[in-house]
Amino acid sequence: MAETGFGAPRLNVADLSVGSTMPERRAGPITQEHLIRYAGAMGDFNPFHYDAELVRSRGFKGIFAQGLLTAGILGQTLAAWAGQDLIRKLGVRFAEPVWLGDELIFSAVVTRTYRSDEGKARADLDCIVSSGDGRQVLKGSATLGKAD
Q1: Does pLDDT of 48 surpass 90?
Q2: What pLDDT digit, counting tens, does each position of 55-78 carry?
Q3: Which residues contact 17 (CB under 8 A, 6 or more apart)?
Q4: Start-to-end C-alpha separation, the chain
Q5: What is the pLDDT of residues 86-118, one digit of tens each?
């Protein structure tokens, strides 16, 4: 999967402010191989991810990716930017299918900064994953900060 990379995490949550953004990351195009590898790793062998005839018979235009594959790449993107140890929460809602051949664009913006009860800096983010053709395929939220 071709994608832009991030250097070593150097994020200080206290330096973030409302409107701060995560650098955009692109991944894809999504291939059948990605779906097969994910299915093998996670045990998700739903035929909607490999049986084109079945999928079309159910009214879809073709095979689509497992939702948690997209969510996992979002989590990986946040971890690469902020540092895995800073992710306190991650929630997602699947909005549109990710089709074979889609390029994915990952972005996030800080919507709130605050201090935990223990005084540690926190930042809430809205996360969006879009396809190269402009569809929002996933909406999410995350909270960053050091463990209490």
Answers
A1: no
A2: 899 998 999 999 999 999 999 999
A3: 110, 113
A4: 36
A5: 999 999 999 999 999 999 999 999 999 999 999
* Domains of the chain: residue spans and CATH: 2-30+67-144 (3.10.129.10)
Show the tokens assigned to 30: 């999504």
For residues 146 and 13, is the Cβ–Cβ distance under 8 A?
yes
